[in-house]
Write a structure and sequence with these properties.
The complex is a heterodimer. By secondary structure, chain A is mainly alpha-helical. Chain A has helices spanning 2-24, 28-32, 34-51, 76-99, 106-125, 129-147, 154-185, 190-195, 197-202, 206-220, 229-232, 238-247, 250-264, 268-289, 295-316, 319-350, 366-380, 386-399, 405-428, 447-465, 467-470, 472-483, 499-516, 518-527, 536-558, 563-586, 599-617, 621-641, 645-666, 678-704, 711-723, 728-736, 738-767, and strands at residues 56-63, 68-74. Among the domains of chain A are: 154-544, no CATH class; 737-780, no CATH class. By secondary structure, chain B is mainly α. The two termini of chain B are 34 Å apart. The chains are: A mainly alpha, B mainly alpha. At the A-B interface, β1, α6, α7, α25 and α26 of A face α5, α6, α7, α9 and α10 of B.
Chain lengths: 780, 509
């Protein structure tokens, strides 16, 4: 019950947020933060019971027919994530209250943030993969709205779309993967799926399931080559970046990989994909960060790198590596959330985003500089901070990785060194050195902007210093849930003098050295700009351009605007689709009645043919109409011969009337002109002949069928005794099938009224030209 | 009970006739229009409840037993369709009170609307193939006049294409009925069903079924027969577009589903691959068409085509789950699609254009985001975002396809889904997000009184239904799957119409 309330409450408060904001003004952030704080409080109260191995779970029916239920569970893994989401969420709401103070759409921002928080909590608490997917997609959509918060700016709109399309495409692949997984496992419940590891892994679809689900996770967690949307998403206001793009949404993919590790993990494919993508992402993120000088983009690339490290850890898959990955998730959320908020505070108080132009702010904002240094030191992996411990653990597991251990270790060391450089750029460079003027007069940010980053930075120290109380109860259960068995690895600062410590020292040293001499390396980073044409971003834009261009040309080809083209296509399709089974399935036409043909039949048929020929070759309109009338009369003759006087009479009057009407109307039309080319005519002749042949074939098919007992005999028999009419046609029309007649009368009435309305309305338009809405031109 | 089954036809006919008689008074016509369509909603819900409780309802017109006379046969699928038609009709009527200009209102707009609904409901209720043709004619004629009413140049151009191509469909339909009658000697669908099932000559059946596929395919706007739809749907007033978008093509889809479940088997060697191919191409060409357009209604029009592909897909996959997916998709689609056209109308009234290049920002987003939210809900539903109706509709179909290993078509469906999202966000970004760099510069040209409550009400109601269908997807899916099971139970249908002895009779001729 509580779990459901936790997920739902975010959505409920989101709806109320704009009104709350309007009513409470600048305190709105503090007030709204009460909900996530309360959720975090509840979660903390559950830590000890979850650590002892208990899981809380609830289930409500939702769509039983599809195996989707509203079920949630709280185990070690979901607890860690839910705590980060709600805890950081509370701080972000407070921060956003200060950051966007007085913004006219602050209420909307709170609304989106709370929607996002609810969705995210849904993702990590869901106990059913399809329910999880529902919330997963909701995070994509809320993130779209959040990235596009500054919707007047073109860049914001483009970045929002890019993030949505990349994660959306991944999401669809993942949906297919989840459905297949549920199909193979026989259930969509996560606990059921996790218990069917053997069935899943031995199934022929296992590789497809793995790849499809991982595509979803990789796009969401910005793994190479899908990483590019994340730096783009920095168009969002900073509270959003700090929340979505450092500590929560980008970890959704990580969460799902960890969640499914007991079911899908430790296959060779899984290992290679995760370590491969993870290592590539880690390096790409760290290297690309070197080219940036904007605070938030620097942080975004370092986030990409960190996400790669975590994925790599999950891919290595040993007990140590999993624990290291989990520890890294926690450490990263603490320092990166903090750093983003610091970056936002700097921007907010100075109006400057470019690191190159920031310097010596220490004296103007002393508290912020301490916070920044603490958080950055954790990112750089300096002891005694959480980032240090996580890095040590990761190095240790990379050294003992089952595959390509040396390469992974080397790559990790290099990335760690580059992360030191980033840490220096975002937290050292702006605060130290000589003072430089900034667009706005720099001063210490208000409490609302300091609380979040400060608290997270302090937690980064505390976690490392008292790991037994703060880290282990969170990390060990989460690692156990990921492993599927109990984890015995502990989060501790000192592992003794070992190779990992040595590598760590090397990384730090190299990092500091590169930072100090960075002006020499800058041209090198700039030189890589030539590669941008091949980058995933370029591919994304290329694909987008191609799709739009292709869409346009194919649409222009199909929807030509010429009715004649349309009719030709429809005729050809009809002939093709009907003739194929007619020829292949029905067999050659049989003409049973051929022998019984009377000369009169043949004569009338010839007459009709000649009239039709005359109609199409006629040089003037009158001739064509008369020829058409002749053809109609020919058909009437058949009715006469085959004893259907009612039909014949009706047909004669229709033919006569239409000839008269045609003549009346055509008098007012311009001259008869031949507009078709010879080739066009030839084509039309061929189509017409093929159509005629098809119709003849159909009729022969019907007549060759052994005649079934027809209802027409019943109709004739019952006409007089039951229908009280001697003329069976009349009885059919007004009694047996009176409903048809009623419908047809309606048709005629509507036709008559319609003609009247259209003509009258036209007269009125002619009198006073109406202000009709201008319609966008183009082909119809 | 039997009255209930014919009321969806009688009620609009009476309302239409009354409106014609009272055509001097616009006020009365409006009142009748809203009241009669709302009454239709109630009737349709009662009918649905009855069918849901009692099973298939059969009404023999004039008490002539099938196959002598015409019967209305109301099963779950049919009654669901009537409910959807009634809801769309009521929303349209309310929206039209202010949304349709006086000029059109005083020239039979409301009567035409009623008769259109009559035709649509008749098509969903009848159990006779020729009677179905008659209802097609009713709705073709009334829709043609509605399309042309107003005599604007674009309208007439679109109406000509619309009526020409649809008349071709009618001719094919009539031909098909003629040959069907010539072959099997009956027009009653239940009777046809058992006679077709008993025949040895499957070639004839397949060939005949193709004629119906083409005839209904034109109505349903499947690939490559859909030309009339993008040529005409953007031309009439928005209310007319909306009801067309909601209902017309779905009558075609309904007919395809009806005949290919009740009458014709889906030949696995020919019909099935053909349908899958057509479904894939319909989805793709439709969505690509939408991606290439920059006008509100043209984008939406092409999307209709794309989604018809999904509905056809469910039929072609031919499992109970897939068919349930089709039914669910139709339920979702009608509500969402009509609503999007209504909202396009609101945006156009606010900004005076529906060209996406010029429309932005419909700056109500900046001030009061109501219209924007009302657009966002159906738009995201259309793109298949959970927890809205469109997600579950898509989910069922995708799952059904994956379970029988139809990888290719499901891949197409998923790619189409992301392209749908792309073009919906295009409208969103152009119409609601775009704007001058400074907030103060916008909203000068806004017509603030453009959106009266009577036009917001139907939009908000339909949006609420979309959300509700998603949140209560459980019972809705349950209904859809029971409707699908009923569709696949031919014998149940035949027995309901012709009585128990009919089945044995045919087995031992």
């Amino acid at each position: 019950m509580t779990l459901l309330a936790i997920v739902i409450s975010g959505f409920v408060l989101a709806v109320a947020a704009p009104w709350v904001t309007r009513a409470t003004g600048k305190y709105a952030g503090w007030i709204l933060a009460a909900l996530p704080a309360a959720i975090a409080g509840y979660l903390i109260s559950q830590v000890s019971s979850v650590a002892s191995g208990q899981t809380v779970s609830v289930a409500y029916q939702w769509i039983p027919g599809l195996g989707i239920d509203l079920s949630f569970m709280l185990d070690g893994l979901s607890l860690l994530f839910a705590l980060m989401i709600s805890g950081i969420g509370a701080l972000i709401l407070i921060y956003a209250g200060g950051y966007l103070a007085g913004h006219p759409h602050q209420g909307r921002l709170f609304c989106f943030l709370l929607l996002f928080m609810g969705s995210m909590l849904g993702v990590v608490l869901a106990a059913n993969v399809l329910t999880l997917f529902v919330f997963w997609e909701l995070t994509s959509i809320t993130s779209y709205l959040l990235i596009g918060f500054d919707h007047r700016r073109k860049e914001a709109r483009a970045a929002a779309l890019q993030a949505l399309l990349v994660t959306g495409l991944g999401g669809l692949a993942m949906l297919a993967g989840l459905l297949l997984m549920g199909h193979v496992a026989g259930s969509y419940s996560i606990s059921e799926i996790l218990s069917r590891r053997d069935v899943l892994q031995s199934h022929a679809l296992a590789p497809a399931i793995t790849v499809l689900i991982l595509v979803g996770c990789f796009t969401k967690s910005a793994q190479f080559p899908f990483h590019f949307w994340l730096p783009g998403a920095m168009e969002a206001p900073t509270p959003i970046s700090a929340y979505l793009h450092s500590s929560t949404m980008v970890k959704a993919g990580i969460y799902l990989m960890a969640r499914l590790t007991p079911a899908l993990g430790s296959t060779e494919l899984w290992q290679w994909l995760l370590t491969g993508a993870g290592a590539a992402t880690m390096l790409a993120g760290a290297l690309l960060a070197m080219r940036e000088s904007y605070l938030k983009r620097l942080l975004a690339y370092s986030t990409v790198s960190a996400l790669g490290i975590i994925t790599m850890g999950l891919g290595i898959g040993t007990e140590k590596a999993i624990s290291a990955a989990i520890a890294f998730i926690l450490a990263h959320a603490l320092y990166k959330g903090s750093l983003f908020m610091v970056a936002g505070a700097i921007d907010h108080e100075t109006g400057e985003k470019d690191v190159d132009k920031l310097s010596g702010l220490r004296s103007a904002m002393p508290i912020l500089s301490i916070v920044a240094l603490l958080a950055a030191a954790s990112q750089a992996g300096f002891p005694p901070l959480a980032g240090f411990v996580a890095k040590e653990m990761m190095l240790e597991s990379a050294l003992h990785a089952p595959i390509i251990a040396v390469a992974l270790t080397a790559a990790l060391t290099l990335s760690a060194a580059l992360l030191v450089v980033v840490a220096g750029l975002v937290a050292f460079k702006p605060f130290f050195g000589g003072e430089r003027p900034t667009p706005r007069h720099a001063h210490e940010p208000p409490l609302s902007l300091l609380l979040g980053p400060g608290l997270l930075a302090i937690l980064g120290v505390a976690v490392a210093l008292v790991p037994g109380t703060l880290a282990d109860p969170l990390i060990a259960p989460a690692a156990s849930a990921t492993l599927g068995t109990e984890s015995h690895t502990h989060f501790k600062i000192w592992h003794g003098f070992n190779l990992a410590l040595g590598l760590s020292a090397i990384a730090t040293g190299v990092g500091v050295l590169v930072y100090a001499t960075r002006s020499r390396w800058m041209p090198l980073a700039g030189a890589t700009a030539g590669l941008d044409r091949l980058s995933p971003t370029a591919c994304y834009h290329g694909v987008l351009r191609f799709v739009t261009a292709f869409a346009e040309s194919q649409t222009r080809m199909i929807q030509t605007g010429r009715l004649r083209d349309y009719l030709i296509v429809i005729f050809l399709v009809t002939i093709g689709v009907v003739s194929y089974p007619l020829i292949t399935r029905v067999g050659p036409p049989v003409w049973n009645e051929l022998g019984t043909l009377h000369w009169l039949d043949v004569g009338i048929a010839v007459l009709i043919l000649l009239s039709a020929f005359a109609a199409v070759t006629a040089k003037n309109r009158l001739l064509a109409i008369i020829a058409l009338g002749m053809a109609g009369l020919g058909v009437t003759m058949f009715y006469v011969i085959y004893a259907a006087p009612d039909l014949a009479l009706t047909q004669i009057s229709i033919e006569a009337l239409s000839v008269v009407l045609f003549v009346l109307v055509f008098r007012r039309l311009p001259d008869f002109r031949s507009l078709s080319s010879r080739a066009g005519k030839l084509r039309d002749v061929l189509i017409a002949c093929a159509g005629g042949a098809m119709m003849a074939g159909l009729v022969l098919m019907a007549t060759s069928y052994p005649s079934a007992t027809s209802v027409s005999r019943d109709l004739a028999e019952r006409s007089y005794p039951d229908g009280h009419g001697k003329n069976v046609v009349n009885v059919i029309l007004v009694d047996f099938r009176a409903m048809d007649t009623m419908g047809e009368i309606t048709v005629l009435a509507i036709a008559a009224l319609g003609v009247y309305s259209l003509l009258k309305l036209r007269d009125r338009i002619d009198e006073q030209p109406s202000a009709s809405a201008p319609s966008a031109g183009g082909r119809a | 009970m039997s009255t209930l089954a014919v009321l969806p036809v009688i009620l609009p006919l009476a309302a239409g006739a009354a409106s014609v008689l009272l055509w001097k008074s616009l006020r009365v016509q409006r009142v009748v229009g809203v009241a009669a369509t709302l009454a239709l909603v109630i009737v349709s819900l009662l009918l649905f409840r009855e069918v849901n409780r009692e099973g298939i309802i059969v009404v023999h017109m004039g008490s002539w037993p099938s196959p002598i006379g015409i019967s209305f046969v109301v099963d779950l699928f049919g009654s669901i369709m009537v409910v959807l038609a009634a809801i769309t009709g009521a929303a349209t009527a309310i929206y039209s009170v202010r949304g349709i200009d006086k000029r059109r209102q005083s020239f039979l707009y409301f009567p035409l609307l009623h008769i259109l609904l009559m035709g649509v409901c008749g098509a969903f209720l009848t159990g006779d193939i020729f009677n179905l043709y008659v209802w097609f004619e009713v709705l073709l004629m009334s829709s043609f006049v509605l399309l042309a009413l107003g005599n604007e140049r674009d309208q007439l151009e679109g109406a000509i294409k619309y009526v020409t191509i649809n008349l071709m469909s009618s001719a094919l339909f009539l031909t098909a009925i003629g040959i069907l009658y010539g072959t099997f000697g009956t027009l009653d669908m239940a009777d046809l069903s058992r006679k077709i099932a008993a025949t040895q000559n499957t070639g004839i059946v397949t060939t005949l079924s193709m004629l119906f596929l083409i005839a209904f395919g034109i109505k349903a706007a499947i690939f490559p027969l859909f030309f009339w739809l993008p040529a005409s749907y953007h031309t009439p007033p928005f209310a007319v577009s909306a009801i067309f978008a909601g209902l017309l093509t779905k009558v075609g889809v309904y007919a395809i589903i009806r005949v290919f479940t009740l009458l014709f088997p889906i030949d696995p060697g020919f019909t099935r691959p053909l349908m899958l191919f057509l479904a894939a191409m319909t989805m793709l060409t439709g969505v690509l068409g939408a991606a290439s357009q920059m006008e509100f209604r043209r984008v939406l029009s092409f999307h209709i085509i794309s989604q018809i592909g999904y509905m056809l897909l469910g039929l072609a996959l031919a499992t109970p789950l897939a068919l349930a997916g089709s039914v669910f998709y139709i339920m979702h689609h009608i509500i969402v699609k009509a609503n999007l056209f209504f909202i396009a109308g609101l945006a156009e009234r606010i900004r005076g254009t529906s060209d996406l290049k010029a429309i932005g920002p419909v700056s109500v987003y900046a001030r009061s985001p109501l219209v924007a939210i009302l657009f966002f809900i159906p738009a995201m539903s259309l793109a298949g975002i959970p927890p809205l109706s469109g997600f579950f509709a898509k989910l069922v179909l995708v799952r059904a396809g994956l379970e029988i290993g139809e990888w290719a078509i499901i891949a197409v469906a998923l790619v189409v889904s992301i392209l749908t999202l792309y073009s919906m966000t295009k409208i969103w970004a152009e119409a609601f997000w775009k704007g001058p760099a400074r907030r103060e510069d916008e909203a000068e040209s806004d017509n603030k009184d453009a959106v009266p409550p009577s036009m917001l009400l139907p939009v908000a109601t339909l949006a609420a239904i979309t959300v509700a269908v998603g949140l209560f997807a459980g019972p809705i899916f349950d209904i859809a799957s029971r409707a699908a099971a009923q569709l696949l139970d031919k014998e149940g249908y035949v027995r309901a119409v012709l009585g128990d002895e009919a089945m044995q009779e045919e087995e031992s001729p």
